[in-house]
Every structure is written in C-alpha cells, then in structure tokens.
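Hi F.,

I've been meaning to write this up properly since the lab meeting, where we talked about keeping a consistent format for the predictions we share between groups. The idea is simple: the sequence comes first, exactly as it goes in, then the structure tokens exactly as they come out, then a line or two of notes. No screenshots and no reformatting. I'm using this chain as the first example so we have something concrete to point to.
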Amino acid sequence: MRIKFSSTIAIGFALLISSCDFVTLPEQGTVGPTGPTGIDSTVHRKVLLEDYTGHKCTACPAAAVTANSIIVANPDKVIVIGVHAGFFSNPVASGTQYLTDFRTTAGTAYDTYFGISAVSNPNGLINRKDYTPTTTTHVKAPGTWATEVAIELAKPPLAKLQIATTYNAGTRVLTCDVNSTFLQDTLTGGPYNLIVVVLQDSIIADQLDAGVYVPLYMHRHVLRDNINGTWGENLVNAGSIITNSVINKNYNYTFPATYPAAGGASSTSCDVNRCYVVAFIYNDATKEVIQVEEKKVQ
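Output, unedited:
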C-alpha cells in the first residue's frame, strides 16, 4: 500500500483517527533479505539524495513529495536522507507548535559545510557532487533532482556496499556489519571514507505546508544519528585500492528510547521498527558519494 504526503488539515485529522495503526509505505533503496547472512549481491549504481528541510519551511513538503516520487520512479536505486537543519528546523521552546527537534549534530555540520540553508530551503545534494567551497553549484533545487539523479544512475558502479544487521530488542543494541568493495583500482583523489547513519521513517509531528499548519504530518527518511561520526572513517587511500577486496567495518549502536532535544523542545520516540541503517562511500577530497546502501534494522 502506498500513501502520499499530507498537505491539508483534513488529511492530518484523518491520520489522527488512524494514528495507532502502522501504515506500510514504499521503501527506498534495497533493504535485502532479513538477517546477517542474506545480502543482496546485485551490483548497480545507487544515488544518495539529501533533502535539507525543516518543520517551519512552508515549501519543504512539496520537495519531500518530489524526493519520494524519485524513489518510486527508480526502485532499489535511490536512497533519501531527510536532514533537518538551518533556521526552519529550529524548534520553538514554548507554546504548542513546532516543539519537536529533529536536528542532529551531523546534520547541522553538513548544512554548515555545504551551505544549504544559507542558500535557502528546500534544497539538497545529489551524491554531494559538484562541491567547491567558493560556489553553490552543488546545492540542487528540487526541480532539478530527477535530472541530476538520472545523470548519476547512468554512471557505472565504482563500489559495492553490503549491510548486515542483528538487533537485540531487550537491550536495544544493534550490531551492524558493513562490507565495502571497490570495483576498480583507477579511482583518484581520495582518501575514500565510509559514513554510517541511522534514519527513522514515518514520524508524525507538525509541519508548515504551503502556508497551512498541519499538526499531524508524516516526516519521512529522517536523519536521527551517525553511527561512526559526522564524517565517518577512512576505508582506503587512492592508489592503494585492491580491486574486489572486501573491507569490513563492524559497529554496535544502542537505540535510545527517545532522541533528545535541545533548547526546551520536545523529544520524539525512537521506534526501531521504522529505523534503517544507511551507509555511503565518498571521496574525502571532493566529498562526492560513489555508492550508497540501506538496510532495515528489523
């Protein structure tokens, strides 16, 4: 069953009636078979779309619809991260509206480094391509996302990522193995780094949508935390790549009951059933992402 984003109060109140029911939504990327041993071995180029957003950004829900339509149009090939950062993501410390804090340390760092909200929101990054510190060419408007994704998908895969997870519901501890394999030895400009993050999908909270306050809006693909740091860790340096050699990284991550908030804002519950691990490899010299993968936690 597929549903679309709500952009009216009427849909918001319809969600209130059914808010206790889990709604099955279209998945992004390839989540693969469950369990640590069943991993999809198909190798093709996948694209990371980072949607920089905020609950007080009136045009951001339309951009989210665009991102979701790109997922649907490119099944198993596009992975979206919703990054709440910048002015429009700031929570209100009192009152009844916009109390929720979806900001993360890493999301704020990315927004500052790439200058997304300094240009305006909604905007985003497609594989973090075209980055230079002196221009804003890398900041992609939602109207260009589909074209930019198509350009990236037409490129051959340079690396393969495999994610395997096990989760202990009693301790809320995730064990995660990420295998990275470079498919050619001619890559230049590295080092190549790996970033591993946690997303949570289908979070109901308020949102400004086309000038209308929607109290029960569904936030998709929300960045919740970074497992191995804001900028990740080194995999290999350019010139030292061994083709088809597997580089394994193992992580343990404890899911909190809620993700904390700053400045008196409301925290939100962490529903592990709606959480995903996303890993991506990027060139640390250019910041460009060469491969991305996703796996549902459970």
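Notes:
The two ends are 19 Å apart (CA to CA).
The domain at 9-296 is CATH 2.60.40.10 (Immunoglobulin-like).

If this format works for you, I'll send the rest the same way.

G.
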